Amino acid sequence: MTPFLSEDFLLQTAAARRLYHDYAEGMPIFDYHCHLPVEDIAADRIFPNLTRIWLNGDHYKWRAMRANGVDERLVTGDADDWEKFAAWAATVPKTLRNPLYHWTHLELKRYFDITDRLLDPASAREIYDHGNALLQTPEFSTRAIIARMNLKVVCTTDDPVDNLEHHRTLQEDPAFRVKVLPAFRPDKATAVEDPVVYNHYVDKLSAVSGVPIDDYDDLLAALKARHDFFHQMGCRLSDHGLERPYAAEFRPDDIVRIFAKVRRNESATPLENDQFKTAVLLELARMDADRDWTQQFHFGALRNTNSRALRELGPDTGYDSIGDWPMAAPLARFLDRLASEDRLTRTILYVLNPGDNDVIATMIGNFQDGSVPGKIQFGSGWWFNDQKDGMQRQINALSNMGLLSRFVGMLTDSRSFLSYPRHEYFRRVLCNLLGTDMENGELPHDFDLVGEMVRDICYRNAENYFGIVVDWHGPHPHGPHGLRQNHRRTPSGAAAWMAFSGRRRLSPRSQRRQDAQRDTAQRQRPAPLVVGLAKGNRTLQQGRAVCHPGLFRLEADLPRTARRGPKNRENRLPAWLFRAAAKTPGRSPGSLHAAGAAAQPAGNTRIAGRRPCR
């Protein structure tokens, strides 16, 4: 019998276990969409107890507690923190076969090293006291938790009116190495259903942007000003939470009239609502394309369905469900409108209704244009689908109708600092699917081939796709945020990228296998020549670097002029990342030192050599 939550949890074959432990387990995390409160990260908050860090704001737990007959006072009411935790502990044994049971014990194991007991009423007090004691130590501040879980990038969710002061605090702190970047979430700018609420928001947008908003053009100017500000602050992603895709037909004067009507506190008709949303979403998508951002669309949430709960508790308190709106035709029209203008940027589509999985898996293929690998993505299982079955269905649909190998992988979409084991959960599910296929003869028994795809999905695809450079020590040639500054992406997707280990402690078995692979490679392979590029007065150098299989990889292409014309020709920069074993103090980040490296003539010159190791 397999023990519960062992180190081989969810890994049902030998191939799955090897894929996970040797390829997936140690990869860093690129969390490109979450709802973590950035003010808590900036303040490096210490939570007073488990209830505050683990239960507050967690809709999954709240829904389970209500279903278990727990009074609302113990869920979101005025009960004290211990009473709420005890109510949750009494609910946990009733969550068998719900993903909450897995997540709860995986989080207790990874953060608090609780492996010898399950959470239930008998163990609640001991676990509560043990967790509370640990939470008061420096190792459990918000920043320490993030660093411990091997995060490299965290993209929060931020309204255009946010001043991003906490992001600035984090960016100005050289001691904190994790990039915490904003993501642009302009949902309220399209929400004209309630004119009073909408006009209050528009007034606030006007104040923070410095743009008086008297007409529709002013609204777009204010949004553009905030979009530019977010870009300056390192933002490279937008996000939209929508019931469904919007693609209504409209004329420009229709939108001017609708906006003026709403500003007079008059309600828009359903058709006018659809037209307005369509128009503003198209303009926002064009802004994203011009700035070379990635846009995300979350479709299918039927929100705040319980009117009594909405009145008493407010929105977003756990009364949402899966919706079933039409998806294919309006989404195709929306994407086609942008593609026909050559303004369709990198796009990730998420659906809450699993019945739409095949629709999205086929839709993304309609708008791939060869400019970026996996340019249009089918996003990971979201919300009610970020569990084993939902992850498998999304992976299988993408595998059958697209390229799983180009998938940018998992995100947390969470408000909890203890939710990062969900990445481990996803990686175990992924490795189990692939390992089972290998054992069944449906995939080659080639761990270099399949294992490298696993590493790509776990981390490297996201790093390459979003163009956010991570783990760089010192100034970076791509700008203060480690971000590429050109507005259009090169056709190859990224001129250069480097995947590194960032590994947590390995199991003894995995460490022995890794050491053996390294020793064999060092005996059999010559050290690769490093390709260099010099431009202007920069000196081009050539040298050798130690090659560590699976831990060091460098690929390079010459930067290319943007597709839309030569206007960026003079702004092109050599896109190099050098993280070599030999570094010399005082060298610039763009140079690689090696003993005996000979200086080469300056100019736009490329020296070819062997590629580094796979």
What does this protein structure show overall?
With 614 residues, this protein is of the alpha/beta class. Among the domains are: 46-140, Orthogonal Bundle (uronate isomerase, domain 2, chain A), CATH 1.10.2020.10; 489-614, no CATH class. Helix content is 40%, strand content 8%. The chain is built from 20 helices and 13 strands. The protein has helices spanning 14-24, 38-42, 50-55, 59-67, 81-91, 99-112, 124-135, 142-148, 165-171, 195-209, 216-232, 252-263, 270-290, 307-313, 328-340, 357-366, 388-401, 421-439, 447-466, 508-524, and strands at 29-31, 151-155, 179-181, 237-242, 294-299, 301-302, 321-322, 346-351, 376-378, 496-499, 532-534, 553-556, 605-607. The strands form five sheets. Strands 4-5-8-9 form a four-stranded parallel beta sheet, covered by helices on one side. It has a three-stranded parallel beta sheet with strand order 1-2-3. The protein has a two-stranded antiparallel sheet with strand order 6-7. The relative contact order is 0.11. The model is unreliable at 472-505 and 525-614 (pLDDT under 50).
